[in-house]
């Protein structure tokens, strides 16, 4: 074990091992003098000499010989993975993590995902990732992420100027994801790369038999707005008949909600279990839920949306018994409007078990999450902690249960923090139409750009930038840098490290580009919060309760007039004025006062408040709260009536939906989706007419945009 002074000497200079072989050689897998980096509490860096014979690594996924270099010497991260050949996953169980360590789902996954986020900026800046691959240790069952970069200003990566970094961490349940991208002339293979998994892949533990598939033009752009016969003849058979690859037949399976938006879906290769059961797409659909005799079974879009629940990225939590799953009624208005659409309850004891199972490490003053996005058999949505529930139970509402299922594993899709608020182009257009002067936006933009440019002055401020801009989100990449920033010695070494410096430089470029092209301007004192319901009924109509809890233990209660909205803001009525009640008085709201980092909506009024905000609900939707200090709260007399959209038409079959019907719907959707086109046209029209979003044509486009979203 090396001591800290020796570690700092090794971290500070850029290491350019002369023994690093040229690109394209299999020997490049293991630079002999690379070091394994692990983090141990309290902030000590441990480096293990990889020359130890007991630490000999075998290639897990190595760059093949004679690899073509179609995209130049500065490939993106995903391009670097394109032609990798991989060995089967090790069959041994994953070891448990020590309390103070960063796992492969943390530091290494953070580095890996961080490279995904930053590599495009490195490409623009003339520096990049040269190679990224994985190695595994046969003895200690550890996985290493190896990052090989080339030096700034060097047009080629050679044996003398390559920098190799290897981070070794304990393996967890993280799966290796394989991806195939089809274009009109090629099939591009990506991976395997570290990525989030879902309940289906975990259930069968055969990740090599599931593949993510995307269809693109040759330049990587989506197929949207193109439904000509050439496109149909090339890609339609893929979803109807599947394809052959690697000696296996691959068939369309399903998609996730995020996958549908990004034009990617899952295919699988049929296989047999030990008991000779044949696992096919149809078999998996039947195990997910029972749709027999329901209207859902006749509507391809609705049926596949229900199947998509099982393919959402999630982490396994706990398996519940039937007596732990309670049923409670929805809270509704006299006209049938549902105030509790999508949100259920979880007992404090079970919530603590979930936090422990997820491995969430809290600071001394940090409060545990009180809201969870979940999947449980045929139910989905959010769960808010209710202190009146005893034991270890969840309480589900009819609005959450989408179909019958025998699966009882509680899958957590995410927990919620108080996200910073940001402007965007549609929101700026809406607020301008509601009377906010343009000077307010220009001042906010000037402050934001100045702060971004100054962020590289110190490591703590530089590390805060990628966190605020959600770069490498869902990882411990930023957390690892925060750990290094706490100590002066490690802070200097980390700040001087070329890899860290490049990531932080890329963060600055990324943030400035977002402001320039997307008008993504940060709003101090404003928050993005997930919505939940007032189960006490103590909030009056148009009142909300929001308590912000920070990692240092400090608390902020929002109080006063708040402008609340939800993306997308296509209609003039997609911004409402509400009153934040601040800290609740003693004896009031006992069931909601402990909820943190969420916005609690009332259950009084003629209509659910979330439904007035772009048709929102409480199954995980996030709402933007604009405080008076931001200068973005419109005058009450400028607030428009909320939208009342017509229901989107649906296609119903005269028979039950098949897997092939789902594939056909997916292909039609990705080629005919006009959501982005409608939104862009609406912005152009709003800018060209004095009425702005109130122009009749803009209102028609708002209805079309809503209809397009409902098709998802």
From TrEMBL:
GO cellular component: nuclear RNA-directed RNA polymerase complex
GO biological process, one term: siRNA processing
Keyword check for Signal: no
Region of interest (Disordered), ranges: 1-22
Domain RDRP core: 182-708
Any one GO molecular-function label of the UniProt entry: RNA binding
Superkingdom, natural source: Eukaryota
InterPro entries the UniProt entry points to: RDRP (IPR007855), RDRP_core (IPR057596)
Coiled-coil intervals: none
Broad enzyme group: transferase
Reaction it catalyzes: RNA(n) + a ribonucleoside 5'-triphosphate = RNA(n+1) + diphosphate
Pfam families hit by this protein: RdRP
Keyword RNA-binding attributed: yes
Protein keywords: Nucleotidyltransferase, RNA-binding, RNA-directed RNA polymerase, Transferase
EC assignment: 2.7.7.48
Protein family membership: Belongs to the RdRP family.
Protein's recorded name: RNA-dependent RNA polymerase
Species this chain originates from: Rhodotorula toruloides
